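User: Some background: our group keeps a shared notebook of sequences we're curious about, and every so often someone picks one and asks for a predicted structure to add to the entry. Today it's my turn. The entry only has the sequence so far, pasted here. Could you supply the structure so I can complete it?
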Amino acid sequence: MLRSDVITKGTQRSPNRAMLRTVGFSDADFGKPILGIANGYSTITPCNMGLDALAKCAEEAVRAAGGMPQIFGTITVSDGISMGTEGMKYSLVSREVIADAIETACNGQSMDGLLAVGGCDKNMPGAMMAMARMNIPAIFVYGGTIKPGKLGGRDLTVVDAFEAVGHLASGKIDEKQLIAIEKNACPGVGSCGGMFTANTMSAAIETMGLSLPYSSTMAAEDAEKTESAARSAEVLVNAVKANIRPLNLLTKEAFENAISVIMAVGGSTNAVLHLLAIARIARVDLNIDDFERIRQRVPVICDLKPSGRFVTVDLHRTGGIPQVMKLLLDAGLLHGDCRNVEGKSLRELLADVPSTPPGSQDVIKPLSNPIYNKGHLAILKGNLAQEGSVAKISGVKRPVLTGPARVFESEEDCLAAILDKKINTGDVVVIRYEGPVGGPGMREMLAPTSAIVGQGLGDKVALVTDGRFSGGTYGLVVGHVAPEAAAGGTIGLVREGDSITVDADRLLLQLNVDDTELANRRATWSRPKPLYTTGVLGKYARLVSTSSKGAITDQLD
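Assistant: Of course. Here's the predicted structure to add to the notebook entry:
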């Protein structure tokens, strides 16, 4: 029995069917599955500008395959545009709003399945959270990656524009060069072009089987992206008939596969937060220590930006995520029995993928010659992060530093100090009260980290925060520190000049202050008044969990 039968065949069927006739239903359509198409289209960001065409293509394909499509809208926040502003506090919150909106529309209208079309960073985990909550047949269609900008013979991404601000401050470029980078960094539609958060999460979703093979690395402007959207719609109709549901696919093994792929491609720190969130909603026993366990055995084999040389379209040309998965599967680093939305096992899907990457490329390395012998997302613990923190150590020559704390109560204060050249080699920059509750919203720190890299300090200072980092961030950076400052975490007790050790080799984040002194400081600490008490940020701050549990608003404990 279809969920939509309650609308089309229930006791209220006459008024219900009258309304449905107005939106295009005929007599023959009332027995067909009603499939929601969550359309994240907007002109707010290049990531989402191309989504409307994909949604309409999927709509036609659903109808041709025997389903009845119903399109509804979801929101987005452009991280790249809101970065460094108060508006960035809404970015992670938008993940919850997207999940809530999709759940509300699908359950409110008794839809039988969901095709979600998204582009910017939070569209993907938001849609996945909704899929896990509702557990109706579902598939995700990624809007696609942007093609690289070009300037002086080199590829550009939006991160180059952020780093150019640091280059300008340090005198490495002039204003004319800054404007040239700004004008050329984003040449068209699509999500940010490196292995940043959007492309990381699209890769994870493909790995877990809720989007089609190869779809996670396609360019937004290429014809194959439209073809993939239509094929996704056909697959969804079949999934409804076969009763293939998200919780059939979102197993512990599927999440482990996603983590393995994220390590192999050098993905974003945000993947830790988002996978923990999706897993908790799906009631899968995944915790932050699983990331470290998998990191120890999975190397980084893709040379991708931000710390590497290539962009996501280069990865696509060399075989995409299926090629990466095939290398990992052959090495015993993936669970081959996990299934996708088509009902096929991972082993079946990868049967025709070559066991070695193409020889005439440097994007994907063989496991025998990796870029890094271990994964790049390390989970650090210690008295400064009892619940854990996430360090991204790709591109760092030596991921160990002990130095004096430079303490800032907000991202803006920190950025001003960096641009005024007040941060020195060996410093440990601490940005606090930017966590899920304290921010609220856990802002990303791309502006400070890019300014640090732009000034040539990327491997000479560390940055520690209870906020997040953009997928475009690299260097010795440690985020998601939990418990956060606003929840009484030790990061709130750090004082200017305190010695802090960041040691990714020993997985340690340590405030080098004795326990007696910390106890004295804790006795005098008081929780700051919330910055927001009303509206979406106020509601989020009251409900949100710690970052070590995904920073979700679902009350599951």
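Suggested note for the entry: The mean pLDDT is 95. The chain has three domains: 32-147+188-349, 150-186, 377-549.
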